[in-house]
Amino acid sequence: MPKYQGELDGLCGPYAVANAFELCGIEDTQATFEAACRSLPAGRWPRTLWEGTSFRDLKRMIRRCRNELPDAAGVRARYPFEKKPPRSNDEYWKAFDRLFDENPNICCMIIGLTRPSYHWIVASRDSQKRIVFSDTDPHKPFARKNRASLFAGSDVTP
Fold it and tell me: Do the Cβ atoms of 23 and 107 come closer than 8 Å?
């Protein structure tokens, strides 16, 4: 069976950044991906390929893309869970919905999953306010996924 991104490498972070910037109207996904990869510290290569990227890496990738890519300076990035992360999966999804409901200009979010495995994925809303996930699976790059199958909150219970 052919392999796809995520089975053998940990590059879901740069892919998520490229997918998010594309949803924000920055169409050159190759340039976005390359800028995101260039933002990672040289001492981390090639370990990043199998270890993946952190939240700090994700912020670094987004900053580099906003600074280097034409038209990307207008892409606004916020980190609403950085200082006070949700304590449970349920709390996470309630806050996620609230952010979209209160901010109609949000076009997407990059979220970090912890289950079924660690993974960065892009989430957006369609016209019916359903979540659409943009992922790196070549067979289903855009899919409505069951929230119950994804765990985005901390393992800490209240």
Answer: yes
